[in-house]
Specification:
By secondary structure, the chain is α/β, with parallel strands linked by helices. It is about 35% helix and about 15% strand. The protein has a single domain, classed as Muramoyl-pentapeptide Carboxypeptidase, domain 2.
């Protein structure tokens, strides 16, 4: 093979690889968002330890996990996470630790349904959800993708049972609204206990989901698509 033919073949292979890589990236991120790679994530953690995704169970004593997306008991009716784990950025976890300590004095504790969520899962949710108002638009990404949102409820520490709330987790019903008023007094009391406690520690509930709380300052953290297995 001549040198000219060899160069031509290498150029074709390079262009083919570049096209394949771009097509793959477009499939993984069809909206052209800035989504940090695993290498970029590790580098950001070296520069600022607040960027690190910490495993909640290791830092919040007595925390209960009920990771619905690691099971088929969710609105997708299939397993979305290979591991039943929960992660969040360091400042988020530290605030949850404080919340857990305060709740313990009242005989309550936290149960986590979801926290950090890889971007690919957000894409799947939006594609298949029957009501798009209850899932994040992947054009912007989710606060969950930034490690700055948590889905949770309260439990009674003695019985280990959930306090009665307006709806089950991930309900698409109108009662899931964080301001829905036509509810029993006990339910309203429990919801307000949860919302006010989270608010005092830097979280804000979203309008249509009483269980979903965004951490104030989420804008400072990149969207991510790192699977739990790498963390």
């Amino acid at each position: 093979m001549s040198k000219h033919s060899m160069k031509k073949m290498l150029l074709i292979l390079f262009l083919s690889y570049a096209f394949h890589t771009q097509a793959q990236e477009k499939t993984l991120n069809p909206y052209g968002l800035k989504i940090g790679t695993y290498a970029e994530y590790l580098d950001s953690c070296k520069k600022n330890s607040d960027n690190k995704l910490l495993e909640l169970k290791k830092y919040v004593p007595g925390l209960v996990l009920d990771i619905k997306y690691a099971t088929t008991d969710n609105f997708m009716k299939r397993v979305m996470y290979k591991q039943a784990r929960a992660f969040a950025r360091r400042p988020v976890v530290m605030q949850l630790r404080k919340i857990q300590t305060e709740l313990k004095k009242k005989g309550y504790g936290l149960k986590i349904f979801d926290a950090y969520r890889p971007y690919q899962v957000t894409l799947a949710f939006y594609a298949e959800a029957s009501d798009k108002n209850f899932v994040a638009n992947p054009k912007k990404g989710s606060k969950h993708n930034r490690g700055c949102a948590v889905d949770l409820t309260l439990i009674d520490l003695k019985t280990r049972k959930e306090l009665v709330m307006p709806t089950p987790y991930d309900s698409f019903a109108p009662e899931a609204s964080s301001t829905y008023a036509e509810l029993p007094d006990e339910v309203l009391k429990n919801r307000e206990e949860l919302i006010s406690m989270m608010r005092r520690h830097g979280f804000r509930v979203i309008p249509n989901e009483w269980w979903h709380f965004d951490f104030m300052g989420w804008q400072n953290y990149d969207l991510m698509d790192i699977p739990f297995e790498q963390l």
